[in-house]
UniProtKB/TrEMBL annotation:
A Gene Ontology cellular-component term: mitochondrion
Polar residues bias (residue ranges): 85-98
Region (Disordered): 51-175
Subcellular location: Mitochondrion
Source organism: Lecanosticta acicola
Keyword vocabulary terms for this entry: Mitochondrion, Transit peptide
Gene3D superfamilies documented for this protein: Tetratricopeptide repeat domain
Protein name in the entry: Pentatricopeptide repeat domain-containing protein
Pfam families assigned: ATP13
Length: 756
C-alpha cells in the first residue's frame, strides 16, 4: 500500500488513505504508527521515488500573483477566538501552536499595557524606536498579516520579550551592533553630511542621539525646511521601496526561505521610526509643516495603509492646513491601494462572484480585509473624497481620474471606468472594441504640459482595470490605442501586468472551479506564449525579466512540453548569471573596504562616499541573486516533472538520450542529490553529487554565512539591520554532521602538528 501511495499525488493519496480507513476495518496492532509519522514516512518514500517533492511542482502563489494584492490568508482575531472556543477540550495542538499562542498573548498584553492616550498629534517619543528586532515576536508566517496590518501610530513598548536576543549574529560568533553605541556620534557635525549624501540611517541616528543627549537647543535650531527634508529622506520610496518591490513576487513562505523579513515587520519598523522622528520634533514644541503632512500622506500611499492616511489627513485638517490636489490624490490612493504589499490572497482582487460576495459581507474574512465593495466600499469612499475635493475648489488632474478608474474597476464597475475615459480623454471604449474606424473616434487633443495629459501610468491603470475584470482583449487593444494616439511608450511594467493576468486567466481550472465559478474570462493555454511573442518581437522588442520568465515557464509546464521548457530556462540563465555577477561585485567592494579598514590601509580618499549606500547596494544585489537562484531551482524541478511524465513517449529518443543528460550535467549544481527519470526503455537512477562534494558545499555555505555576518557587523545599520537578512532556522543535515566534524578534527590535527 505504501508503494502505491508513494506514486500518487497529494490529493489522490489522501483519497486513497481515507478510502482504506473507511472500508477496511483495521485493528490497532502493537506496531501501530500515528498518522503524522505515517505521512512523513510516505513523504520520504515518495521523494526517494521521484527525487523531488510535490511542493516544487506547486505554484507558491496559487497559480499567479497580483502586483497589487490583498491581505494575507489569515483570519481576524474574533474569528480565531470563535474557532478556538469550538475545539473540544481533548484537542491537542502542536508544540509550535502552543508556543506561539503564548507569545501572541504576551504581545497583546504588551500593547494593552501601553499608554492608550497617545495620539498622532501628541507624537510622544517615550515609546521610541527599538531597532535590530529587539521587539520582534517569533510568530509563524500566518500571524504576520492580521487585520491590524501596519497600524500606523499605535502605542509601542520598548520592552524585550523573555528569551529573545538583541544579537542577530550571536549564534554565528559575531555580535550585532548595540543600538546605544550607534547613538554615540557627533550628531551636530554628521547631520549635514548625512543629508547631503542622503544617508537615511545616519540622519535618524543623529536625531535620536540629540534627543538622547537632551540637546533641545539643537533640535529647535533645525529649520523647518531641513526637517521636511529629513522626513522626505525617510519616506518609503527611499527607505523601504526596494524591499517592497521584491516582496510582490513572493509569498510569506518564499520570503522566509530566502531570508527576507516579512513586509509586515518592515513596514511596522518603518512607521515606528517615522513616529519617533515626529515625536522628537514635537518634544520641542514644533508641529509638522504642510510639506511634512504631504510627505506623510505619500508614505501612507506607498505603504498601502489607509488607516495611516486617515490619521494624517485629519491631523492635517486639525492643524489648519488646506490640502491641495496632491494631498487628495495621496489620500485616495491610500484607500484604493490598502494592503499593497500583503503577501497573501493575491487573487482576491479579481472580479468574480466568489470574491465580490466575500467583500460585500458585513463581517469579511481576513483574505478580503483590505477593501469592501458595495455600501461603504472602496468606490464609495474614493468618490466621497473626490467630490469633496471638487466642492472645495481643488482641481483634479490625470492621477485623480486614474484613481477613480481603479476604484470603480475594483468593484466591477467598468461602466464608470469607461465613462471617465470618454469624458476626460475622449477614449471611446465601446467604439474601439466594436472595430470602428479610429478616424471617426479620435481622442481629445490635450496640450503637452496640461495636468490632464495622459502618461504611461494611465496605460498601467487601463491594463490593471480591465485585467482584474477578466477582459484581457480589451486591455490589450485599449493600451495599444492610447499609446499610439498620445505618443506613449508601453513600459515593461505594463507588459508584466498584462502577461501576469493572461497567465492567471489561462490556468486550467479543476474541481469546483470548472463549474463556472472562476471560469469567467478563461483563456486558452496558448495565450501566454502568444502575448510573449507579441511583446518580445518588433515593434515592441521588450527584454523579458525574471518575473516574466516565471509566468511563461509555469505556463509551458502546464502544457507539458519538455523541449520548450528547457529552451526557456536556458534563455533565462543569462539573467541569473548577471545577478550573480552583480552580487559578487558588490560583495567584493564591501569586503575590500572592510579588509583595508581592519588592517589600517584605508586612506581618507579611499573612503566610499556613503557606507550606507555601499551596504544597501550589496544587500539588494544579493537579494536579487538569491531570488533568481530560487526560481531557477524551481524551474529545473518543473522540467524534471515534465520529463518524468513524458519520458516514456520520447520515441525518437533524442531528448532522453542526448539533450536530457547534457542539461542535467549543466544544472548539476542546483539539482537534487538523487535523480530519477523514465525513458522509453526503462528507468534511470543516479546520484548527481558525491558525499564529499555535498560536504564541501555545506562548508562553503557556512563560510559565506560567517563572512556575511562579519561584513554586516562591520557596516551596521540602526534601522533595518535584518530586513534583507532575517535569521533562518534549520542547518546541516544530520547525516553530514559526522563528515563535517571529521573534517574539522583533521584540520585541527594538521594545525597542531604544524605548530609543533
Amino acid at each position: 500500500m505504501s508503494a502505491l501511495l508513494a506514486r500518487l499525488g497529494p490529493l489522490e493519496k489522501r483519497i486513497a488513505a481515507q478510502t482504506t480507513w473507511k472500508y477496511c476495518k483495521r485493528k490497532r496492532q502493537s506496531n501501530w504508527v500515528c498518522a503524522g509519522c505515517t505521512a512523513r514516512r510516505d513523504s520520504a518514500f515518495k521523494q526517494q521515488r521521484r527525487s523531488y517533492g510535490d511542493d516544487s511542482l506547486r505554484f507558491t502563489d496559487g497559480g499567479g500573483s497580483v502586483l497589487f494584492p490583498g491581505e494575507g490568508e489569515h483570519e481576524h482575531n474574533d474569528d480565531k477566538k470563535a474557532r478556538q472556543n469550538t475545539k473540544p477540550e481533548s484537542w491537542t495542538g502542536s508544540s509550535w501552536e502552543f508556543e506561539n499562542q503564548g507569545k501572541k498573548e504576551l504581545g497583546s498584553q504588551r500593547i494593552q499595557d501601553g499608554p492608550e492616550s497617545r495620539t498622532f498629534q501628541e507624537g510622544a517619543f517615550e515609546s521610541s524606536y527599538t531597532p535590530l528586532g529587539a521587539n520582534e515576536r517569533d510568530e509563524g508566517e500566518q500571524d504576520l498579516e492580521q487585520d491590524g496590518l501596519w497600524e500606523p501610530f499605535e502605542p509601542f513598548d520598548g520592552r524585550q520579550e523573555p528569551g529573545t536576543s538583541d544579537s542577530v549574529f550571536a549564534a554565528d560568533g559575531f555580535n550585532a551592533p548595540d543600538p546605544r553605541d550607534m547613538l554615540d556620534i557627533d550628531y551636530r557635525a554628521k547631520l549635514s553630511d548625512a543629508l547631503l549624501q542622503e544617508e537615511a540611517d545616519v540622519v535618524a541616528r543623529c536625531l535620536f542621539a540629540a534627543y538622547q543627549a537632551n540637546d533641545l537647543d539643537f533640535l529647535r535650531s533645525i529649520p523647518p525646511t531641513t526637517y521636511s527634508e529629513i522626513i522626505r529622506l525617510l519616506e518609503p520610496s527611499h527607505f523601504v521601496a526596494k524591499v517592497g518591490r521584491v516582496h510582490v513576487d513572493f509569498s510569506s513562505k518564499t520570503a522566509a526561505e530566502i531570508g527576507l523579513m516579512s513586509m509586515h515587520k518592515v513596514a511596522r519598523e518603518y512607521v515606528s521610526v517615522l513616529q519617533s522622528v515626529l515625536g522628537v520634533r514635537r518634544s520641542v514644541g514644533i508641529a509638522p509643516t504642510f510639506a511634512d503632512y504631504t510627505i506623510l500622506l505619500r508614505s501612507a500611499r506607498d505603504l498601502g495603509n489607509s488607516k495611516m492616511g486617515s490619521f494624517v489627513w485629519h491631523a492635517l485638517l486639525n492643524d489648519g492646513h488646506v490640502p491641495n490636489t496632491m494631498c487628495y490624490n495621496y489620500y485616495m490612493s491610500a484607500v484604493v491601494w490598502n494592503g499593497i504589499h500583503s503577501a497573501g490572497s493575491r487573487q482576491t482582487v479579481r472580479v468574480i462572484p466568489y470574491n465580490m460576495e466575500g467583500r460585500a459581507r458585513e463581517k469579511r474574512r481576513s483574505k478580503f480585509w483590505n477593501y469592501r465593495v458595495g455600501e461603504g466600499g472602496v468606490r464609495q469612499q474614493t468618490m466621497e473624497i473626490f467630490n469633496k475635493m471638487l466642492t472645495n475648489g481643488v482641481v483634479a488632474d490625470e492621477e485623480s481620474y486614474r484613481i477613480l478608474i481603479t476604484a470603480s474597476a475594483r468593484e466591477g464597475d467598468l461602466a464608470t471606468a469607461k465613462s471617465v475615459l470618454k469624458r476626460v480623454w475622449g477614449i471611446d471604449v465601446e467604439g474601439i472594441m466594436a472595430g470602428t474606424d479610429e478616424k471617426s473616434i479620435p481622442p481629445k487633443q490635450i496640450p503637452e504640459h496640461s495636468p490632464m495629459r495622459p502618461t504611461e501610468d494611465l496605460l498601467l491603470t487601463i491594463a490593471d482595470a480591465f485585467s482584474i475584470n477578466n477582459d484581457i482583449p480589451s486591455a490589450l487593444r485599449l493600451v495599444d490605442f492610447v499609446a499610439r494616439h498620445f505618443g506613449l511608450a508601453i513600459t515593461s511594467d505594463v507588459w508584466a501586468r498584462l502577461l501576469q493576468w493572461t497567465f492567471i486567466l489561462s490556468l486550467p481550472r479543476t474541481g469546483t472551479d470548472r463549474l463556472g465559478r472562476r471560469t469567467t474570462g478563461q483563456l486558452p493555454l496558448s495565450s501566454v506564449l502568444s502575448l510573449w511573442n507579441l511583446m518580445t518581437g518588433p515593434p515592441y522588442s521588450v527584454k523579458p525579466t525574471m518575473s516574466m520568465y516565471r509566468y511563461l515557464i509555469k505556463n509551458i509546464f502546464h502544457r507539458q512540453s519538455s523541449d520548450w521548457l528547457a529552451d526557456k530556462i536556458i534563455a533565462a540563465e543569462p539573467l541569473v548569471r548577471s545577478s550573480r555577477e552583480m552580487a559578487g561585485k558588490r560583495l567584493r567592494d564591501v569586503q575590500g573596504y572592510t579588509r583595508a579598514r581592519s588592517k589600517g590601509f584605508l586612506r581618507r580618499s579611499q573612503e566610499p562616499r556613503s557606507l550606507e549606500r555601499l551596504r544597501n547596494s550589496w544587500q539588494f544585489a544579493d537579494l536579487i541573486r538569491r531570488r533568481d537562484i530560487l526560481w531557477l531551482r524551481r524551474w529545473v524541478r518543473l522540467y524534471l516533472g515534465t520529463v518524468n511524465r513524458n519520458g516514456a513517449r520520447d520515441t525518437r529518443r533524442q531528448h532522453s538520450a542526448y539533450r536530457l543528460p547534457l542539461l542535467l550535467w549543466q544544472w548539476r549544481a542546483i539539482l537534487p542529490e538523487r535523480i530519477e527519470y523514465e525513458t522509453p526503455t526503462g528507468f534511470v537512477m543516479f546520484r548527481i553529487r558525491s558525499e564529499e562534494e555535498i560536504v564541501a558545499s555545506h562548508k562553503r555555505r557556512l563560510y559565506l554565512k560567517e563572512l556575511r555576518a562579519y561584513l554586516l557587523a562591520a557596516i551596521p545599520k540602526y534601522i533595518g539591520h535584518q530586513w534583507f537578512d532575517r535569521p533562518k532556522s534549520g542547518g546541516i543535515p544530520k547525516r553530514l554532521m559526522e563528515h563535517l566534524k571529521a573534517a574539522d578534527e583533521m584540520l585541527n590535527t594538521d594545525a597542531r602538528s604544524a605548530k609543533t
